[in-house]
Amino acid sequence: MSWLMCGRLFQSNIAVPLVQTLRHRSRRPNLRRPAVPHWQRAVILKVTQPQYLDISEDVHPAEICKLRIKNEAKQKEVNPFEQILAREFLEKTEAAKVIAIFHRNAMTEAELYAVRLQLNKIGLHYQHYNNNIARLAFTGTKYEALLQLYQSQTATFIGDDVKIAKLLKMGKKFATLTLMAGVLEGRLMSKSDLQGYAALPSIHTLQGQLVGILNAPLRRLSQNLTFHQTALASSLNQYMSDKTKGTTKNEDT
Amino acid sequence: MALPYKHSGTFLRSAGIYSAIAKNCKILNLKPAKRIEFNFDPFGENVLSTRNVLTYLTQDKVRDTNPKCIIKTNVLCNRANPSINIAFDTGHKLIFKTQNLSTLEVLQLFNRFVSSTVKPEAEVSVPKTKAQKKKK
Name one GO cellular component term (chain A) (predicted). Predict the structure, then answer.
């Protein structure tokens, strides 16, 4: 494999060979008294002279840095396939109820498959998209806050009917994945938020509690209004029961 | 007609920072470490180096240098600064505050303080049998 190809593997602007041209067995040019060139040669030399930009004092060298301009142009380049993937990712994310974003440790395909199997059992499906696709998909949308997570190695899983408590329990055992954050019904949740959500009782219990809280002032009001009547009624009942007990005792004796 | 010029030069072998990181990853050794804890807030700033080092240290080759070493990841939710805490077998502790360290710097420091303390194994000479000597 050539060195130039090796350079392309590393995905950076390197491995351009440093090449020097040397004069070999030709007439040595006289630099003190240079020879007057032929008219045609002179015209070509003049035309091929490099045109340098006028560096004005107002412009900072960083603004006219060619590498920077080249990189910016490269970033703006639109890859249609990447756009399609980004659109697909965004559509799946918007349609899903639960999104779990993990940090991915170094692992083999076999280990990834094993983890995917386990998460599949709780309804989470692996999304094979890289950080660039995620950036294209989420920039300018409501999921822009997630982009902070899409650095380094990341794995995204989405699902609809997912039990968060089970996910957290499973997540503790994984050696290759670390749960960082999730999105639950359009709401971004950190790990502690997910733990709090998992600790909540069922919705029916919460609804019952809410009904109780709403009823509480009315209940208190009715109790206060009927307090004296109920107290009188209970006292009279007590008096009657005591009286009847007293008469039965007398009859017995 | 032969051109009056002869080309000479060299080719760059190094891929810059990636070569440096690869070089440091090759010499990673977890033998002196008993427990390594990675603490980071995923929504915090400057967490990239911590996450990258976590990926490098969990490689199979690196884990095989010391299968007993426990690597734990704590995901924080309080925007605290990221850190890597290393507990040695000797009882010493080493804390990397990685907020302002790059990936390469963390790996270099790790190799300096952890991997370099590993003593190379002495070569054990196996005595040759008569049959082996005869074959020669």
Answer: ribosome
Whether chain A has a CB inside 8 Å of the CB on B64: the answer is no
- Assigned domain for A153 exists: yes
| A155/A181 Cα distance (integer angstroms) | 11
- pLDDT tens digits, A33-42: 999 999 999 9
Question: B44 to chain A nearest CA, in Å?
Answer: 8
Looking up residue A101, the CATH number of its domain turns out to be 3.30.70.1730
Give the model's confidence band at A213: pLDDT under 50 very low, under 70 low, under 90 confident, else very high. Answer: very high
Query: pLDDT of B70-97, one tens digit each?
Result: 999 999 999 999 999 999 999 999 999 9
Q: Which domain holds residue A104?
A: 74-198
Which of B3, B59, B73 to probe the A interface (max A CBs under 10 A)? B73
Closest CA of chain A from B60, distance in Å: 8
pLDDT at A4 exceeding the cut of 60: no
Both tokens of A198, joined, read 């998992």
Asked if residue A225 belongs to a domain, the reply is: no
> Residue A59 falls within a domain, yes or no?
no
Nearest beta carbon to residue A21 from set B7, B51, B54: B7
Q: Which of B22, B33, B93, B39 is nearest to B63 (CA)?
A: B33
ipTM value: 0.82
User: Number of folded domains in chain A?
Assistant: 1
Nearest-by-CA chain B residue for A8: B15
Whether chain A has a CB inside 8 Å of the CB on B23: the answer is: no
Q: Indicate the residue type of A193.
A: D
End-to-end CA distance of chain A: 121
